[in-house]
Amino acid sequence: QDASVGSDQTVNTYWQRIKEYFDERNTSGHFRSSDSLRQRWSTINAECQKWAGCLSNVARMNPSGC
Question: Domain spans of the chain?
């Protein structure tokens, strides 16, 4: 077992593992560094959080009995 997996691993180790996973499955031919992947995830995550907030607002707007 890999002792660095889980909550004890460093941020750099975590993103290096993500990069290795990406590189193994990348069929686009585009190169991305671990920093590039981290930045891309940051952008995607921010937009997903906005979307989740909008869905939550819509769910709260549904009046009873409709």
Answer: 4-58
